[in-house]
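Case study 2.
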Amino acid sequence: MRRAVLFSISIIILALFNSGCAQKKGEEIRIILPPPPEEPRIFYVESLRGEANFKETKTLDLLIGKESKGVGKNLFKPYGVAATDNIVYVTDTAIGLIFAMDTLNKNVTFIGDRPPGKLALPVSIAIGRNGTIYVSDSKLKKVFGYRKNGALIFAIGDKGEFRRPSGIAINQKLNRLYVVDTKSHNVKVYDLDNGQLLFEFGKRGIEEGDFNFPTNIAIDRRNGNVAVVDTQNFRVQLFDADGNFLSKFGRLGDKPGMFSRPKGIGIDSEGHIYVSDAAFNNVQIFDDKGNILLYFGGAGFGPSQFYLPAGVYVDENDRVYVVDSFNARVQIYQYVSERWKKEHPEEYRELKELDMENKDENTE
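Prediction:
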């Protein structure tokens, strides 16, 4: 992604045609960003709501939410998201459990819906080794670990250990769990082999390394660096794996690169940092130095529009998952990385062709 290149939040609908989508046969919307003649950087894939994705439903009806939310196995108020092995895991703070949406087998199951390990207010979610599923519960003030079948493995959080656990992330190489404790204004780091607290960093304040009600967190897989959304300081702070301060970016404001209500955060394979903002109803993308590159979204109910976006997750294949909280869905995008281009040459060629078609239409 080119540095210091900024594009508006407007989206480009490049084609609307009949050609079965990921859910069922129907209309497919292609949204590619940024607008031509720039190189395609990210494109919209689909939206997930739950059971509604796996029944006979027109895609456009699904996108604008004609399926009732929170009914049966549909999301109601999602917040956190993670994905692996064709399963998208989403926490729902209103229903109080984890949705496991299997896009390959087209079904929805739940985790944390029964004791032991019954959830109350699940917030953030992360996937560890062997597919272990970790989730923070802000009401119970614990972090739970589950097997894929929903069986509880362990719980972290003795009485008084957490005040309000929220964002969590895992360093796979070091086998560490990072937990943002929002009301303690710090990050606690655990050894996943034994569940022991290794260290913590941060305190309430405005100086470098201080926090004011931090919320979410992401790990850069390239180097283990830690990015923390310092919500009430209206910034993102970067640390090394041991909690040493590296840099920060962002401040309060309504211009690109600024924040009002920063929430979710994710990092792709090339180090780009994705930050959702619930006030702007968009996602801003920065390089690893904090320079704004691109932003997309805007208030609304259609594809690539948001209503109070929350959690963000980027998987190892550079799929970007954005929780669209009050629209009761997860929107999925694909970052067009250099690796993705090499692994998907035909699809990349089609993106370029669609991009050129739209450019030609705009110049006629």
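The chain is about 10% helix and 40% strand.
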